[in-house]
Amino acid sequence: xxxxxxxxxxxxxxxxxxxxxxxxxxxxxxxxxxxxxxxxxxxxxxxxxxxxxxxxxxxxxxxxxxxxxxxxxxxxxxxxxxxxxxxxxxxxxxxxxxxxxxxxxxxxxxxxxxxxxxxxxxxxxxxxxxxxxxxxxxxxxxxxxxxxxxxxxxxxxxxxxxxxxxxxxxxxxxxxxxxxxxxxxxxxxxxxxxxxxxxxxxxxxxxxxxxxxxxxxxxxxxxxxxxxxxxxxxxxxxxxxxxxxxxxxxxxxxxxxxxxxxxxxxxxxxxxxxxxxxxxxxxxxxxxxxxxxxxxxxxxxxxxxxxxxxxxxxxxxxxxxxxxxxxxxxxxxxxxxxxxxxxxxxxxxxxxxxxxxxxxxxxxxxxxxxxxxxxxxxxxxxxxxxxxxxxxxxxxxxxxxxxxx
Length: 405
Description:
Layout: H1 2-15, H2 18-55, E1 60-65, E2 67-71, E3 74-78, H3 86-95, E4 99-114, E5 117-126, H4 130-133, E6 138-141, H5 146-150, E7 155-158, H6 160-167, E8 176-179, E9 182-190, E10 205-209, H7 210-218, E11 225-230, H8 236-250, E12 260-264, H9 265-308, H10 310-318, H11 323-360, H12 368-394, H13 398-403
Parallel strand pairs: 5-10, 7-9
Antiparallel strand pairs: 1-11, 1-12, 2-3, 4-5, 4-8, 4-11, 6-9, 7-10, 8-9
Organism: Candidatus Nitrobium versatile
Protein name: ABC transporter permease
Pfam families: FtsX (PF02687), MacB_PCD (PF12704)
């Protein structure tokens, strides 16, 4: 009964000072809203990244020549990048367990021309096994065959960005483009892939037969990458370990550092999850500071309220109100401020998140856990910052309070 009565008195008092109450709750509203929006941004970004990784296949292993280091937010090859060869790819296919498919590849940025139009794009020499390994699809035409790779045919399959840059609205199939100075016939157009994890346009690419690339275009004998698909997600670590051991033995690296990098999709998934969680946690921590600022606002308003209502407190004490009754009343006022601010913040945060996702197509994902934590945190802040004013009100001497002007 006393709890209900205290709540009624608290609500009546707060509604009698609407402007002050609104200003007191504003900090909590902004704080809770900021937490929800920041977490929605982080969760949305994490889901987008993970979906892109999973779209490539969770059983994919990528062998890269040299050491891969993250420089300026992008993976870069360092060290000796000429040690990975076609023989290595063949050995991986024939001697490593738990392997389903292998696709060697060599890429280079090159100038490409058609008629009077030109562009600079990534040219990748590879085999037809790259299609399932990189989850590629051919939208028009066809992909080159293993026979065309063996006979060094000058055929090309282009991405949609290349098709748009070189051909605009024309049909590229059957047309001849020049990669460097070498002519290639366009036999296929790839389906749209979008951007990768570091923002690179995956449609700005041309695929040509590997042997043609190595002998007729690049004039080299080594590879950038070897893409390997394991027999299943549960076998990917064993496959990656087997590949690493095989290459160390073939490259005679006893006592030396690897001159290659083996990355599995599970490892990349794990790294990206950890990075995304750290990013989301940082955003949430920054947003939570505004909640503390909102708590300071409640503290200030409650202290002003105690000062303004000194005589009222004296009257209540004189007619029999106990210290705990006053303590409960002021705590209830503080709790009502924080809870109402928390609810308003949840509604505002959800509306901003959903509205932003709808209008901008920016990936945002509401987190029920973040909403619950933000609400509980706001309620705890209300109680924590309301304790001191409540104790101060309860300790007022009734005689001194009645004398107050």
